[in-house]
Amino acid sequence: MSMNSLITPRRKLLRAGFSVGTLGLLGGCNLTDNDPVQTVLKAMSRWNDRVAAAIFDPNKLAPEFSEAEAAHPFRYNAWYGPELAPKLSASDYKLSIAGLAENKKPWTVEDLTAMPQVTQITRHVCVEGWSDIGKWTGTPLREFLKRIGADTTAKYVGFECADGYYEGLDMPTAMHPQTLMAFKLAGQTIPTQHGYPFKLRVPTKLGFKNPKFITTIFVTNQEPRGFWTDRGYNWFSGT
Ligand SMILES: Nc1nc2c(c(=O)[nH]1)N[C@H]1C(S)=C(S)[C@@H](COP(=O)(O)O)O[C@H]1N2
Ligand SMILES: [Mo]
Q1: What pLDDT band is residue 34 in, cutting at 50, 70 and 90?
Q2: pLDDT (tens digit, 9 = 90+) per residue, 174-204?
Q3: Which ligand is nearest to the CA of 79?
């Protein structure tokens, strides 16, 4: 095969495998899951995730903004409309703990919000092509992991949500100082559609890796599946 024949649309698709938008770029093609191109792209996508994880700097902070730059109202997103967002209430909500953690006692909203909280003003970036700056207040996930006696030498933290959504983070991202269990948005109790009782705010990740309405947190050495990763997006998806 000559070098020239490598510069084909297929080659362009392979290059596209390096970006987050693989699903979008392939959206118009009739590729099936067992297509050899798809198989190669998936392998490259997994490789890309491993490289991204290896170069992630756990001390590098996402940019923070001023209060005046925050969006009001903050945009809503999910695969369904805001009126269908799970309406969790403090009276019956319980956060379950599973996997590699010593203390599996479920947490109430009162237990959760009694933890120390910090505020960050950061940009939430959605792959669908919009971003909004928001002010979130909450507890660093690493503080919570400490309180549940999580094995922080484990590789991942996974999340299950009240709407059937699911996500996972690598441990360095879970322990990152800006990864928060955000109980407030714009200084107010986080509204139902934005994840009450909390949204996991991960400013070093794309929006879809910020799960809302979380009902279970688990610590594991097996890579947790992600709702949008199962639909073609990269697992790592850093910003
Ligand atoms: N439980 C749950 N979490 C979710 C989603 C979802 O559909 N369900 N959508 C994700 C996506 S794609 C985005 S962009 C953000 C939107 O969060 P927001 O409504 O606070 O803007 O939530 C993320 N977390
Ligand atoms: Mo998103």
Answers
A1: confident
A2: 999 999 999 999 999 999 999 999 999 999 9
A3: 1
Q: What is the pLDDT of residue 15?
A: 43
In a domain, 237, yes or no: no
Residues with Cβ within 5 Å of ion ligand 2? 126, 207-208
Q: Which of 191, 200, 157 is nearest to 85 (CA)?
A: 191
| Residue 22 and residue 126 in one domain | no
Nearest CA, atom 23, ligand 1: 208
Q: Are the C-beta atoms of 192 and 88 separated by less than 8 Å? A: yes
Cis-peptide into 36, omega within 30 deg = no
DSSP 69: G
Residues 157 and 193 placed together within one structural domain of the fold: yes
List, for residues 16-25, the tens digit of each pLDDT value.
444 444 454 5
Last residue of a domain, one of 55, 75, 92: 55
pTM of the predicted structure, to 2 decimals = 0.87
Atom of ligand 1 nearest to the CA of 194: 20
**187 within a domain of the structure (yes/no):** yes
Q: Which of 210, 229, 230, 239 to mutate to test the pocket of ligand 1 (most atoms within 8 A of CB)?
A: 210
Alpha carbon nearest to ligand 1 atom 1, residue: 212
In a domain, 236, yes or no: no
- Last residue of some domain: 12, 28, 55? 55
Ligand with the closest atom to the CA of 77:
1
DSSP code, position 18: T
Whether 62 is covered by a domain: the verdict is: no
> Exposed, middle or buried by CB within 10 Å (0-12, 13-18, 19+), for 23?
middle
Q: What range defines the domain where residue 40 resides?
A: 3-55
* Residues in contact with ligand 1 (CB, 6 Å cut-off): 75-79, 126, 161, 163, 165, 194, 199, 207-208, 210-213
Residue 121 near residue 67, CB atoms below 8 Å = yes
